[in-house]
């Protein structure tokens, strides 16, 4: 097999595309021939040594992929050779093959494209868990989605609209806002124009008829979070997804007090580990949503697997709308 190997998590220069021994599945594991893998922001942080999960080097990065089961280990009864699957294993995706625990693989029904499946689990599970479980989103409420043109932001727009919410999508350029509108956002806010220290709060007030958003989906952090929290509706919920903007904000705790608001942490990966039955139900609901046409990953570009460094550089430079996918050539 071939794989991207990270010798030390010191940055993109530490990656090399090389040969590794063909893997063999052990008990409870499956061997998957990888058709496509998506690139997520944590993949960049892991190879830079900046993520909370730090695999022992050398390792093959890449959290999420889709492909076909080629062999199963002892005790595996839920999957069979020839079964198409999507997997979220944390590492191992940027390769031609991977051995993963069978329970980390989602069997795919007919009609679920492998390229879409490679870009599906992490973003849609995060959005669904955030909005419907942690955020208790109700039909008719208004959701503000920050970072609306990224992978998790585009998923959040679709999940919120399918739940009957009104969506205000915020992004950092006119092109990104236009993408959000194509996905069904009811209004957009360009925070390259309406800045956190400028007219952002005024524009948000205008777009919500002075009430503010009921739910804020925030994977960005940084300077955006405090002014958005100041604008939130009574009994609003600020969903803390991540900090793609770089800085972890420090928030005055009188703000949630004054609005009767909640600041809610969202960590889908830990939820999946601690509550496997609830997560399995969530994933099945997402699969059905895909088959019904409610959810479709936004794929910016499909590149060859050998182009991983280029893909990570694009991601780091914020030049991606939706998700980047790497494919293994036939």
Automatic annotation (TrEMBL):
Keyword set, alphabetical order: Acyltransferase, Transferase
InterPro entries according to UniProt: ADH-like_C, ADH-like_N, ER, GroES-like_sf, NAD(P)-bd_dom_sf, Quin_OxRdtase/zeta-crystal_CS, Zn-ADH-like_protein
Residue ranges of domain Enoyl reductase (ER) in the record: 11-326
Origin superkingdom: Bacteria
A molecular function GO annotation: oxidoreductase activity
Enzyme Commission number, as recorded: 2.3.1.41
Coiled coil: none
Gene3D superfamilies: Medium-chain alcohol dehydrogenases, catalytic domain (3.90.180.10), NAD(P)-binding Rossmann-like Domain (3.40.50.720)
Enzyme class: transferase
Name of this chain's protein: Phthiocerol/phenolphthiocerol synthesis polyketide synthase type I PpsC
Organism: Tepidimonas sediminis
Taxonomic placement: Bacteria, Pseudomonadati, Pseudomonadota, Betaproteobacteria, Burkholderiales
